[in-house]
Amino acid sequence: MVETVLLVGGGGREHAIARALADSDADLYACAGNRNPGIAAVAEGFETLDSTNPTAVTTYAQEVDATLAVIGPEAALEAGVADALDDAGIYTFGPQEEEARIETDKAFQRRFMKEHDVPGCPDFETFEDMEAACEYVDDYDGDLAIKPAGLTGGKGVRVTGDQITKEEAKEYLRESDYERVVLEERLIGEEFTVQAFVANGELRATPAVQDHKRAYEGDEGPNTGGMGSYSDAGLELPFMSEDDYMEAVDVLRATVDALEGYKGVLYGQFMLTAEGVKVVEFNARFGDPEAMNTLPVLNTDFLDVLVAAREGDSLPKLSFAPKATVCKYAVPDGYPTDPEAGAEVAVDDESVDEAAAGVEGGEGILYYASVDERSDGIYTTTSRSFAVVGVADTIADAETIADDALAGAGEQGLRVRHDIGTADLVQQRIDHVAELRSD
Ligand code: AMP
Ligand code: GLY
Known about the structure:
By secondary structure, the protein is an alpha+beta fold. The chain has three domains: 3-94, Rossmann fold, CATH 3.40.50; 123-185, 2-Layer Sandwich (Dna Ligase, domain 1); 190-428, 2-Layer Sandwich (D-amino Acid Aminotransferase, Chain A, domain 1). Helix content is 32%, strand content 27%. The protein is built from 15 helices and 23 strands. The chain has helices at 12-22, 37-42, 54-63, 74-78, 81-87, 101-104, 106-115, 130-139, 166-175, 242-258, 290-294, 302-311, 349-357, 395-405, 423-438; strands spanning 3-8, 26-32, 45-48, 68-71, 91-93, 124-127, 144-148, 158-159, 181-185, 190-199, 202-205, 210-211, 214-216, 220-223, 228-231, 264-273, 276-283, 324-332, 363-368, 371-374, 377-380, 386-392, 414-415. The strands form six sheets. Strands 12, 15, 18, 19, 22 and 23 form a six-stranded antiparallel β-sheet that branches. A hairpin with a 3-residue loop joins strand 13 and strand 14. The longest helix has 17 residues, at 242-258. The protein binds adenosine monophosphate and glycine. Adenosine monophosphate binds at residues 122, 145, 147, 154, 157, 159, 184, 186-187, 191, 213, 223, 269, 280-281.
């Protein structure tokens, strides 16, 4: 039987999922609020709809006779889109609303870790009364991360001693209209991501990735959804040991053991600290950009994972190409605070291939995100526009591909973090961890 897969979501992450499924023997349909030209090009059909509306998504899934569904964005999970599709008999790789709380409710997430003794949980307290939270800030001996409990697209967290002072933290709490916040110990170290496919109580982990959330080079500026990311040719990153990677996978496994019935991707955001691996957060889906690092090197057929998950079978063992990847997002000038939309996108598949041609054994891939396809071209919107991923034997070669492909972006109303994946930045990370470990 040929499977018909409905993909929900229209960003760079979903373009990566679409490409992985386009390589499989599946009929692919997609739906999202924006028409992603990269996804539309590989799908049999693309419907523009509100992907947080469970009825609209399910109606489309039934129209195309979907036999499977994959959900990319967290907002759709929070809205119960997986519940509605599952109820309609369409197995959905993505957790139901209740299980997605591991991401969508940070207070729940921390309490869950504590209750189930999941390793790597920082000290934390949750507050509904902002004045009580301010008192805690005053009394706490050390720096804190201030985290709204709900979804904020990666932009709601403030860390004292890093981005803001304790006085500013209190102002932030008082001026916010957050219903609940988590205040937790500031973790110091290097961040990394490990994502795993999860179904039927089993977990299959993928290589570690490092994302760069700050808007500007040198990790300056406000937090964003992620400006770019890299992975190495093996499972761990250059600043990590195999044991560090395994410690992170053990955290994911403990989480899956405690979360009954979880299905989809479980994403762990970790901090490698002097005291070992700690959990910054969990997400209930692939990372964006991290999916663009992981899926291009996945040799295992993604469709086989989905079918095994649905059939209640053991998930296939994963195999990855021994290649490093560097992903760089092009974002509109002024992003994330005052983004200027409307620039024409001049980078295309051909120009990316040309950039990769200079690197032996290398490949360049263009992933579209929030762009607007018009009859005369592709234009930027106010969110991340598109990404280029370099795939090569080393991080340095992968970086060259991604950066060369984006060389002209600065003159095109776009901004790129040219430092992501460079030898200098990777070395800084290695030195940072060595310093933490020597203290
Ligand atoms: P989140 O929305 O939970 O991904 O947080 C966004 C960013 O805030 C993370 O990627 C970290 O850089 C930072 N962050 C979150 N929690 C902590 C923490 N406990 N200590 C230090 N930084 C944190
Ligand atoms: N790259 C961070 C995220 O997807 O949440």
